[in-house]
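Weekly structure sync, notes
Attendees: PL (lead), two postdocs, one rotation student
Agenda item 3: pending single-chain targets
PL asked that the sequence for the first pending target be pasted directly into the notes so everyone works from the same version. It is reproduced below exactly as submitted, 309 residues in total.
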Amino acid sequence: MEQGNLSMVAEFILLGLTESHELQIFFFVFFSITYTAIVFGNLIIILTVTFDPHLHSPMYFLLANLSLIDMSLASFATPKMIHSLARKHKAISYQGYMAQMFFLHLFGGSEMMLLVTMAIDRYIAICKPLHYATIMNHRACFGLVLLSWTTGFMHTMSQMIFTMTLPFCGPNVVNSFFCDLPEVIKLTCLDTYVLELLVIADSGLLSLICFILLLISYSIILVTMRLHSSSGSSKALSTLSAHITVVALFFGPCIFIYVWPFSSISMDKILSVFYTIFTPLLNPIIYTFRNKDMKRSIKKLKNRVWVAV
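Predicted structure, written out during the meeting:
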């Protein structure tokens, strides 16, 4: 295409989840309540782990960091989506679009690695309990969390480096409620075949590798628990089932979207809701209501707040 035919795109139009006015009102109320619950629930976990010395262990340290990432992952696009549901003009600036993409892959990539880290923590705790305190010390925990954030940063920069240089020919309508690479590539003036391969090699491969690592680690843990059944197995299995639930709901949509990023199936918007909104909501629900130590610590924190007030 000739350079003279290229036009500068100043903003993108996000079509959102639906064009129905009635459904938009429903989604506005539903996602407003959901987002409030996500922020409130994950914030409670972070504060509880921070202020309760009994929860200063590797598992809860990683859980608090997962809550931080989940809260951030839900915040990169959900407030904008809720705001757009109440407006007719659903536009986002070019800079805003790129910022959403940056934070999506930063938090998404970080969460993938952190979930792998949490699986490693459970593997060591269950399969090598005598060496757990030595291996999972404070230095190792900080290092693993730093590795998760570094992986997320490198992942998102690998996406942004070539995305920022893509030429756009004028169409600026995006059939989604947030900004992501598979959608923006459709609006470029270039042949998308090579770009599709880049998406698969980057986001798709990262999602698939992390998921395979998690499957291997959880399989080893389950086999170990089966061979060495004890009184503590039920508690460990309960914790493990919570991890597996989060992993399945987070990685399932990611793998579907990024391994087959340009399929004609119009389920991407629905699947995107799972890993950007529902999974961050599941974290506080699963870990708060299924964990006795966490519930006990939340009650103590609530009592301290009431006394202070």
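Discussion points:
- The chain has one domain: 9-308.
- The chain is about 75% helix and 5% strand.
Action: rotation student to compare against the earlier draft before next sync.
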